[in-house]
Every structure is written in C-alpha cells, then in structure tokens.
C-alpha cells in the first residue's frame, strides 16, 4: 500500500507519545507501508500532555499553519464537549466539524 493520487507529493508524519517508540511495531509498519516520519512531540507523562501546546509547537516549527492549528483546535474542542457534555452537541456542531475536516483535507 502506498499513498497515491493527490497525496503522493506530500510527506506524512506520525506523531507518537511518551509510551510509543519510533522503532516500535506500529512506527515500523507506518514507515514501511506509508513512508511516514515519526515525531516525538513530548517527553512527559500522559497527564502532562496539553494537545493545544503540541499544536502551537507544530505551528511555530512550521509543520502546520495558524489556520490549520485553529481548525484542529476547533475539532479538539468539539471532541472534548462530546466526551464531557454529549447532550450539548447539535447538528450544527457536527456540520461545522465536517466542514473543518473537509478544509483540512483540501489543504493537503
């Protein structure tokens, strides 16, 4: 399996956490089958990971744009609401998430 079509000209990264390893089975499989590059974004325990900080760091290092970070943060916010306040999620929220995902894909 290879990344063909509209994604064939892009480099993909695999972000792994403190318990995973760039030489682990999952990383080796992703590297071999899809040609991704592993990135370790934090050296801390899971409880200390702040995803918004990771997104900011990816923006500052040039891996994602400010606009893409905003889209990711909106999706993260919706995810948190869906976990902690699932009754508050509306069809409008779902439609906005689909729109954000389409925007992210269109920017590939």
Task: Please provide a written account of the structure.
With 108 residues, this protein is mainly alpha-helical. Helix content is 51%, strand content 7%. It contains four helices and two strands, in the order βαβααα. The chain has a two-stranded parallel ribbon with strand order 1-2. Strand 1, helix 1 (25-34) and strand 2 (37-40) form a beta-alpha-beta unit. The protein is globular. The relative contact order is 0.11. The mean pLDDT is 76.
Key terms for this structure?
108 residues, mainly alpha, two-stranded parallel sheet, globular
Please sum up the structure shown.
It contains 4 helices and 2 strands; from the N terminus they run βαβααα. With 108 residues, the chain is mainly α. The protein has a two-stranded parallel sheet.
- Continuous helix count: 4
pLDDT < 50 runs, ≥5 residues: none
Strand count, sense and barrel status of the largest sheet are: 2 strands, parallel
The whole-number mean of residue pLDDT values reads 76
How much helix is in the residues? 40-55%
What is the first-to-last residue Cα distance? 19 Å
Order of helices and strands: EHEHHH
Strand count: 2
Global outline:
globular
């Amino acid at each position: 399996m290879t990344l063909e079509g509209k994604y064939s000209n892009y480099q993909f990264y695999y972000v792994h956490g403190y318990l995973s390893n760039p030489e682990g089975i999952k990383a080796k499989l992703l590297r071999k089958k899809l040609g991704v590059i592993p990135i370790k974004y934090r050296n801390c325990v899971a409880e200390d990971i702040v995803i918004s900080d990771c997104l900011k760091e990816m923006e500052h290092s040039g891996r994602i744009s400010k606009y893409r970070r905003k889209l990711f943060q909106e999706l993260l916010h919706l995810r948190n609401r869906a976990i902690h306040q699932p009754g508050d999620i509306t069809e409008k929220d779902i439609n906005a998430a689909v729109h954000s995902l389409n925007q992210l894909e269109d920017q590939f």
